[in-house]
Amino acid sequence: METARKRARLIYNPTSGQEIIKKNIAEVLDVLEDVGYETSAYQTTPAPLSA
């Protein structure tokens, strides 16, 4: 029986807060991959409805 792949996309605003996410994005993706997710990341832009 084939198991469905779990996927996670991290959508983040690179300029929010103190810009901490930009320094930690690889670590966040690694944690998700360690528990079986196929990951990707998407950075929002100033454009309306960019997320």
UniProtKB/TrEMBL annotation:
SUPFAM superfamilies: NAD kinase/diacylglycerol kinase-like. GO terms for molecular function: kinase activity. The keyword Cytoplasm does not apply. InterPro entries: Diacylglycerol_kinase_cat_dom (IPR001206), NAD/diacylglycerol_kinase_sf (IPR016064). This is Diacylglycerol kinase. Coiled coil: none annotated. Keywords: Kinase, Transferase. Residues 7-46 form the DAGKc domain.
